[in-house]
Amino acid sequence: xxxxxxxxxxxxxxxxxxxxxxxxxxxxIVLCWSVPVFAAHPLITDDAGTQGKGKFLFEFAGEYGQxxxxxxxxxxxxxxxxxxxxxxxxxxxxxxxxYRYIRKENSGTTTExxxxxxxxxxxxxxxxxxxxxxALKPGVTLPxxxxxxxxxxxxxxxxxxxxxxxxxxPCAIHLNLGYKRNENxxxxxxxxxxxxxxxxxxxxxxxxxxxxxxxxxxxxxSSSIDPAFILGGIIYSIRxxxxxxxxxxxxxxxxxxxxxxxxGLTLGI
Length: 269
Prior knowledge:
This protein is 12% helix and 58% strand. The chain is mainly beta. It has a domain at 33-52 and 122-268: Porin, CATH 2.40.160. A hairpin with a 2-residue loop joins strand 1 (56-69) and strand 2 (72-86). The radius of gyration is 21 Å and the shape is globular. 24% of the residues are buried.
């Protein structure tokens, strides 16, 4: 009889979990059908939208991450300024300038800081119809960081991303598939891939919730683990064309990064 009561309890618990999951999905669908959303920082996955001719976007972002490998603890702070300009309604040019601060603790403490490798990219939205958009984003990474200090790769590299956005009355989902030829002097893998999926929903007049999952090839030759991440965050609109955001990023698998916190400010002109 005791076993029967335990089995019945487990069955009821499973039913409650299923019902709770259904409620969450239902609430999400209702929100998606009731409010507009647009992709933005702190999402890692890009959207297929462009700024438009004569329009500009300034993004200032920071990320703090902590990881442990063997007996070494490493804290990394990255900041980046990104400038986007609309050449025409379908094409944007994007320049990113990052700054990195690395602090390692073992038997002692060492720090390195400085400009990291800058990026230059072009986004071309080549298709848009009934809420579905496709874009290509070729880019180059310039060796502006000091590779001997761990601030850069030491060589120029290039990448190509396919981006799709689907707006569903009016919830938006974004998919990125990318390849990077990671030329470098620091003994990293050269052929890297990236796949990620993101979405967001507006839950109040000036507040949006965002979520992001993805996976990419690990550049570290000594590791067979390809990091798979999950990210959640919020975006608050202070006023039109001025947003602040906050996100928390973690990993599904045993990647040696514990977590990272992401924050940023976005200004459109």
